[in-house]
């Protein structure tokens, strides 16, 4: 089954991150089309060729022509079409809990979403949260604690294995971390799991590689280093000399090279190289090359 996934920019588009994670985390193939946020054409204008016209990202077009431009419908449809992927928990209690938390995220937390827009390129030291944001944070602590107490997962995710509910709260975790918002023990552990998740790190690395900057998302707060795992150090270098003969992602000839720990590795274009420079260990195909697998 072939899907076309329309997404916005990597650094700022929280809903695009949710939609992308539903494909990435569950191994569902797709063709990706990026919508430009930094242009005079609106998102709706850029999606106008779809019929009926979509207005937001993410939007998915299925092989049979269905257009899904609302994130909950996208999640449910993928779960229906790919039951083998277990996008929802298989245990009824966990599934019901995951569904209600997903719906609450989709409709709520307007203060947090409005005051603290997702920005994966910047982390703040002190964002002086309003009372309304603090109320949203308290609610998050309550429902996350409830989910873990009810579902008793063995790992870090809310209702068992990673599921739709975790994809929906990934940008929320990015906000809590990025704005250095107050968190209790449950929230802090859950946020840390998202920041360390390789798929989340790949999405953020692509934004860093694109060097996207939308000034209307910037906040006048003191900044700090990004609180996620520290990437291994790599840098872009000139030339095409490399250990490998083909790009680890596409298999195409080498045109761009990075250096890491005294070794040189090649890629088929600047973006493949730069996303890897941003966070080398987030990319399994690259690490397999590094480790000789």
Walk me through what this model shows.
This protein has 293 residues and is an alpha+beta fold. The protein has helices at 14-24, 43-46, 71-81, 92-107, 110-115, 131-151, 164-178, 185-196, 198-210, 270-278, 284-290, and strands spanning 4-7, 31-34, 59-61, 67-68, 123-124, 223-224, 235-237, 256-260, 263-267. The radius of gyration is 20 Å and the shape is globular. The mean pLDDT is 96.
Summarize, please.
The chain has 293 residues and is α+β, with helices and mostly antiparallel strands. It has helices spanning 14-24, 43-46, 71-81, 92-107, 110-115, 131-151, 164-178, 185-196, 198-210, 270-278, 284-290, and strands at residues 4-7, 31-34, 59-61, 67-68, 123-124, 223-224, 235-237, 256-260, 263-267. It has eleven helices and nine strands.
Tally of separate helices: 11
Question: What level of helicity do the residues show?
Answer: 40-55%
Shape designation: globular
SSE ordering: EHEHEEHHHEHHHHEEEEHH
- The assigned structural class equals alpha+beta
Low-confidence stretches: none
Average pLDDT rating: 96
Give the oligomeric state.
Answer: single chain
- Our measurement of the CA-to-CA distance between the termini, rounded to an integer number of angstroms, reads 30 Å
Rg, please? 20 Å
Strand order of the biggest β-sheet: 2-1-3-4
Largest sheet: 4 strands, mixed
Beta-strand portion reads 5-15%
By DSSP, the count of extended strands is 9
């Amino acid at each position: 089954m072939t899907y076309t996934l329309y997404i916005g920019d990597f650094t700022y588009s929280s809903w695009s991150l949710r939609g992308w994670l539903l494909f990435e985390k569950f191994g569902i193939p797709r063709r990706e089309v990026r919508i430009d946020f930094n242009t005079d054409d609106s998102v709706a204008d850029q999606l106008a060729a779809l019929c009926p016209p979509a207005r937001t990202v993410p939007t998915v077009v299925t092989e049979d022509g269905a257009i899904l431009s609302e994130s909950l419908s996208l999640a449910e449809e993928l779960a229906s079409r790919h039951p083998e992927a277990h996008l929802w928990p298989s245990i009824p209690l966990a599934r019901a809990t995951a569904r209600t938390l997903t719906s609450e995220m989709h409709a709520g937390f307007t203060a947090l979403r409005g005051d603290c827009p997702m920005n994966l390129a910047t982390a703040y030291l002190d964002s002086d949260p309003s009372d309304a944001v603090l109320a949203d944070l308290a609610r998050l602590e309550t429902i996350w604690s409830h989910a873990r107490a009810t579902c008793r997962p063995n790992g870090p995710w809310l209702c068992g294995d990673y599921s739709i509910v975790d994809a929906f709260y990934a940008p929320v975790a990015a906000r809590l971390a990025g704005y250095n918002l107050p968190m209790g023990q449950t929230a802090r552990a859950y946020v840390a799991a998202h920041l360390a998740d390789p798929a989340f790190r790949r999405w953020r690395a692509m934004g860093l590689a694109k060097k996207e900057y939308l000034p209307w998302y910037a906040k006048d707060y003191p900044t700090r280093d990004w609180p996620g795992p520290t990437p291994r150090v790599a840098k872009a270098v000139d030339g095409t000399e490399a250990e490998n003969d083909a790009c680890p992602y596409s298999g195409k000839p080498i045109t761009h090279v990075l250096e890491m720990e005294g070794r040189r590795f090649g890629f088929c274009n600047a973006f493949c190289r730069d996303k890897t420079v941003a966070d080398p260990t987030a990319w399994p195909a690259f690490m397999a090359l590094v480790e000789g697998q």
